[in-house]
Amino acid sequence: MLYSFPYKLGADRISYTAWQQVNGLQAAGADVRVFSGSICRPVHPGVIVESTLQWGKLRMPYRLLGGQRTLQLHDYIVARKVKELAGEIDIVHTWPSAARRTIETAKNLGIPTVLERCNSHTRYGYEVVQKECERLGVRLPASDTSAYNAETLRIEEEEFRLADRLLCPSDFVLQTFLDKGFARDRLARHAYGFDGKDYFPASDYQPNQAGLRMLFVGSCAVRKGVHYALEAWLKSPAHEKGTFTIAGEFLPEYAEKLAPMLSHPSVRVLGHRTDVPELMRNHDILVLPSVEEGFPLVCMEAFGSGCVPVVSEVCVGICAHMKNSLIHRVGDVEALTQHLTLLDKDRALLQRLRLAGLKERSTLTWEAAGVKLLDAYRETIAMCSPSKMWSVAAENLSGIEERR
Where are the alpha helices (DSSP H) in 137-269? Predict the structure, then answer.
């Protein structure tokens, strides 16, 4: 398969996700060829990787051409590579805003295509975050990925139309596309994961009887609902003896709006951290009251670390209410307050949810995610390929199955 990623493979956030996907696919038995804007860390030795925007130590800065032009250049280069490699490719995997030419070229050659949807439908995401910002009185900078951008929306909706299938990592993402009129068979459900070498439970963990230890990890943005977490925390008696630790960078205007709550003695704001696995091992619960979400990687990492997720309904399908997590409706501060109070008082429930999450560790790793993604490829090839091409692809996939 050919994997097209326009950013720095192996860097933070989606770049880390893409890096893990590539390695997971290789571990599952796929033959992977990657074209990435640049490479920040080595991939599995069996993966063939080429940079489209880096030559030796020389890397084209994204600001030189502007973000959108740089993405288009990557797309143009990969589209040409698809032509050159047409006889060797069973499926093409693309990422948003840098896929149109690549998808069109693959379709002309009869090669199935999938488009990664690391977030909800773009139009939905813009609308719901803008509504929440207006409610709070917070303005997003134009550079924020959640800020409305007509050009990005136009490009991505065109990509949605062209791709054979959209890869949806969560039930929430899938539902936002169904709500926009997409047929269910055009939406492939897969998953992300966590790295078990970094995220593992503390061997001596005991619920802190002195007070509940709550953690938030990630970008402290309006879409992540940090304001709801703070409001619920200070309404719950859990804050009287417990601590709420926030690991992430705030948008300045957002932090200013939340300043009275952030200054409470029970709240600790750490800023960006590189010791997240250790933080998770030393906290009882992870809070994520998101308004909009793609796939909450931190929930996978929390399960792997023995930290119980307390999340909004956008995490349904990843988290299960009263089984391994507690789930509230988006914006329901009263329900979130009740959940925090419940876990503060009922440490037996906290421990039961924690153990249930740990029991699922092996099914939530990046290796497991690689198998699911390979299955989504197989399903897509079966749906989209002409019979002649399918016979070749099936032969290749049967070889992969034997290696698995």
Answer: 150-162, 171-178, 226-235, 252-262
Note the pLDDT tens digit of each residue in 123-139.
999 999 999 999 999 99
CB 222 within 8 Å of CB 190: no
SS3 57: coil
Alpha-carbon gap, residue 194 to 361, rounded angstroms: 9
Query: How do residues 221-247 score in pLDDT, each as one tens digit?
Result: 999 999 999 999 999 999 999 999 999
Spans of the chain below 70 pLDDT: 55-66, 208-209, 385-404
Q: What are the residue boundaries of the structural domains of the chain, listed by start? A: 2-193+366-403, 213-363
Helices (H), 168-216: 171-178
* DSSP state letter for 318: T
CB 342 within 8 A of CB 287: no
Tell me how far apart the alpha carbons of residues 184 and 165 are, in angstroms, rounded to a whole number: 10
Determine whether 154 is exposed, middle or buried from the number of CB atoms within 10 Å of its CB (0-12, 13-18, 19+): exposed
* Cα–Cα separations (whole angstroms), residue 228 to 67, 99, 167: 33, 36, 30
Q: Kindly report the CATH number that applies to the domain delimited by 2-193+366-403.
A: 3.40.50.2000
Cβ proximity of 116 and 97 under 8 Å: no
Report the alpha-carbon distance of residue 394 to residue 396 in Å, rounded: 5
CATH topology of domain 213-363: Rossmann fold (3.40.50)
CB atoms within 10 A of CB 47: 17
What is the pLDDT at residue 392? 41
Question: What distance in Å separates the CA atoms of residue 382 and residue 393, rounded to the nearest whole number?
Answer: 9
| Contact of 285 with 325, CB cutoff 8 Å | no
Per-residue model confidence as pLDDT tens digits over 62-120: 666 667 889 999 999 999 999 999 999 999 999 999 999 999 999 999 999 999 999 99
